[in-house]
């Protein structure tokens, strides 16, 4: 079952993560970073880096680029810390635990997020196993898709009351980062331009489906499994796929994106795990 495989991969990521958690002073800053990194999670972004590379080269040695995979989890954690802030979504709980700004302070949470984002790129630059050309391309892909032309831009659209382009928000806030992780795996595995494009499009479509499913879970999910309140989007009058298209149509749209994602990669060398990950995205309860 893919759930068991992903659980094993999550444990693998967590094992390596321990080696890369930064230490230093002032202690409270590094405590906040460690607290947020260890709060749990699916680790889907680093897993996608690994699995996208393995889709092209089944015997590739992940130790050569595990630091790059871990860097994507640092960036994801930064985004969650900032997303939870009072100025953004103002959440008290994340994965069943107090959010970073509730556990520490708003100022420390902001700095912890800043630190994780910048340290992620430092970590990539320190990799000794990939060529400078590859590292530069990875940094370019990642910085573009999590910055103003990706995740940051999408988050800005999400918090603006007069910005109603749901497709722009979901593509940029969520899908482009996931797309970047798949594209990075392609670069690591010496993909041809065609193979890289296929993995990039796979990531884009599973990313959109992932966010649509998150919208659905906010309406119909189990709070005890999610580790946070549901119906937050309704309370804040935020636009979501269910608010525009309804529950059933939103499910259909998510399934369509998954089918499109699979169509891009089904002819690659070892696509089975990525296909199962795609299918899992629209069956998960958390």
Write the layout of secondary structure elements.
Elements: H1 2-20, H2 27-37, H3 44-56, H4 66-83, E1 93-94, E2 97-98, H5 100-103, H6 106-125, H7 132-146, H8 151-159, H9 166-188, H10 193-220, H11 223-226, H12 232-235, H13 241-245, H14 247-265, H15 272-281
Antiparallel strand pairs: 1-2
Helix pairs in contact: 1-4, 2-6, 3-4, 3-9, 4-6, 7-9, 8-9, 9-10, 10-14, 14-15
Structure overview:
It is a single chain. The chain has a two-stranded antiparallel sheet with strand order 1-2. It has a single domain (2-281), classed as Farnesyl Diphosphate Synthase. A hairpin with a 2-residue loop joins strand 1 and strand 2. The protein is mainly alpha-helical and 286 residues long. It has 15 helices and 2 strands.
Give structural attributes.
2 strands, isoprene biosynthesis, 15 helices, 286 residues, magnesium, two-stranded antiparallel ribbon, mainly alpha, globular, 71% helix, Farnesyl Diphosphate Synthase
**Fourth CATH level, the homologous superfamily:** Farnesyl Diphosphate Synthase
CATH architecture: Orthogonal Bundle
> How helical, in percent, are the residues?
over 70%
Q: In percent terms, what proportion of residues is strand?
A: under 5%
Nearest-angstrom radius of gyration?
Answer: 18 Å
Would you identify the regions where 5 or more consecutive residues have pLDDT less than 50? none
Assigned CATH class: Mainly Alpha
Kindly state the mean pLDDT as a whole number?
Answer: 95
Number of strands: 2
List the total number of helices: 15
Spell the H/E element sequence: HHHHEEHHHHHHHHHHH
Count of discrete structural domains: 1
Helix/strand structural class: mainly alpha
Strand order of the largest sheet: 1-2
* CATH fold label: Farnesyl Diphosphate Synthase
For the biggest sheet, the summary is: 2 strands, antiparallel
Apparent shape: globular
- Gap between N and C termini, in Å? 17 Å
Protein name: Geranylgeranyl diphosphate synthase, type II
Keywords: Isoprene biosynthesis, Magnesium, Metal-binding, Transferase
Family: Belongs to the FPP/GGPP synthase family.
GO biological process, one term: terpenoid biosynthetic process
């Amino acid at each position: 079952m893919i759930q068991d495989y992903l659980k094993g991969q999550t444990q693998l990521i967590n094992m390596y993560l321990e080696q890369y958690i930064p230490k230093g002073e002032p202690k409270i800053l590094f405590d906040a970073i460690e607290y947020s990194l260890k709060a749990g999670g699916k680790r889907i972004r680093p897993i996608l880096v690994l699995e996208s590379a393995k889709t092209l080269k089944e015997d590739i040695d992940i130790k050569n680029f595990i630091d790059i995979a871990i860097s994507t989890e640092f960036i994801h954690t930064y985004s969650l810390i900032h997303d939870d802030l009072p100025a953004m979504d103002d959440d008290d709980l994340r994965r069943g635990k107090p959010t970073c700004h509730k556990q520490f302070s708003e100022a420390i949470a902001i700095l912890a997020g800043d630190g994780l984002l910048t340290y992620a790129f430092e970590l990539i630059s320190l990799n000794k196993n990939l060529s400078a050309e590859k590292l530069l391309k990875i940094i370019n892909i990642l910085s573009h898709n999590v910055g103003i032309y990706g995740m940051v831009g999408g988050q800005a659209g999400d918090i603006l009351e007069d910005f109603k382009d749901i497709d722009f928000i979901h593509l940029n806030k969520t899908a482009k980062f996931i797309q970047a992780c798949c594209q990075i795996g392609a670069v690591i595995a010496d993909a041809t331009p065609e193979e890289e494009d296929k993995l990039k499009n796979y990531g884009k479509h599973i990313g959109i489906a992932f966010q649509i499913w998150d919208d659905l879970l906010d309406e119909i999910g189990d709070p005890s499994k999610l580790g946070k309140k549901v119906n937050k989007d309704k309370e804040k009058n935020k636009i979501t796929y269910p608010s525009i298209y309804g529950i059933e149509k939103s499910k259909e749209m998510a399934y369509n994106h998954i089918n499109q994602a699979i169509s891009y990669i089904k002819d690659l060398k070892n696509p089975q795990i990525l296909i199962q990950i795609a299918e899992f995205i629209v069956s998960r309860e958390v």
